[in-house]
Write a structure and sequence with these properties.
Layout (H helix, E strand, L loop, with lengths): L2 H15 L12 E7 L4 E10 L2 E10 L2 H14 L4 H15 L28 H15 L4 E3 L2
Parallel strand pairs: 1-4
Antiparallel strand pairs: 1-2, 2-3
Helix pairs in contact: 1-2, 2-4, 3-4
Bound molecules: zinc ion.
Length: 149
């Protein structure tokens, strides 16, 4: 097993056990529901904007360890980012977990999110890892709901 997949396992376990920003935001500027019927993951993502900047972002819901860990890390990374930066990250993350971007050889803004390249070894988990990203993207674009199907 590669170092990256060991780290992947560790981080997933940690964030699943102790998810960051796992709470509701009252009166958020944006919110959306995300559903991954294949696995049963259901997330709600809340965003507060300060001008063009994500000043707060959180999530609630239930799902598998990967969907929760991914949502948890996403909220950590997105806080303080502009909407444009959030879009770039969404695009890079999505391309990485679908195998269209290799974080080992390409320059990205993904940082620690690169560990999610590990889901490529588990194709059924790709939608779990990307659910929170699709959901926050829907929220920022004013779409209230998104399904990975
Ligand atoms: Zn899942």
């Amino acid at each position: 097993m590669s170092e990256l997949s060991e780290l992947y396992q560790e981080v997933i376990l940690d964030h699943n056990k102790n998810p960051r920003n796992f709470r509701e935001i009252e009166n958020p500027d944006k919110q959306a529901d995300g559903n991954n019927p294949l696995c049963g993951d259901q997330l709600k993502v809340y965003v507060t904007l300060d001008g063009d900047t994500v000043s707060d972002v959180s999530f609630t819901g239930s799902g598998c360890a990967i969907s929760k860990a991914s949502a948890s890390m996403m909220t950590q990374v997105l806080k303080g980012k502009s909407r444009l930066e959030a879009e770039v990250l969404f695009d890079e993350f999505h391309r990485m977990v679908t195998g269209k971007l290799d974080p080992e050889t390409e320059d990205t803004h993904l940082g620690k999110l690169r560990i999610f390249a590990g889901v490529l070894e588990f194709p059924a988990r790709v939608k779990c890892a990307s659910l929170s990203w699709h959901t926050v993207n829907a929220a920022l674009n004013g779409e209230g709901e998104v399904s990975t199907e």
